[in-house]
Amino acid sequence: MTNQKHQFDASPVLVEDMAPVLRLSLRVKPAHRASLGQALGLDLPTRVGARVAAGGTEALCLGPDEWLITAPEGTDLTTPARAVYADAPHSLVDISDREVTLRLSGPSVLDLLAACCPRDVAAIPVGSAARTVFDSATVVLWRDGPTDFRMDIWRSFAPHVRALLAQVQEEFVAGL
What we know:
Elements: E1 14-17, E2 22-28, H1 30-40, E3 51-54, E4 57-63, E5 66-71, H2 78-83, E6 90-94, E7 99-105, H3 109-114, E8 129-134, E9 137-145, E10 148-154, H4 158-174
């Protein structure tokens, strides 16, 4: 029996800060999901991890009654949501300043993420997303392509996550 060591691709992963976006946390009961989604111009997905996009706005289902919505800065989603509040009560909270987003891309991105994430990142389908942890930080991973991810991180954890990403990349290059 031979020991086979997993070969990591030591190619660097490009880690870059993304431009700020409007980021909203939405909670609404399933009975009011369709009405509120129509007001926002989105068909809010019902499957956890599913994403939809329309006109630069994206919605990610994080739970049975919870969505993360992103849109270009300056987009007004509160006015249409407020207009249907009487018929579709909900909580829509601007969390834009709470988080930052990193883009991670390159041939070894799956190995890089797997080093600090207990989730099987390779199993996240392209076009979906998942809330998970990276070391001790809660993150949302958006899989935009086979080797292209976005990672939303609470601003206070960003230095820790960036340092871990750099350390793991250094270890890959050194062949550890």
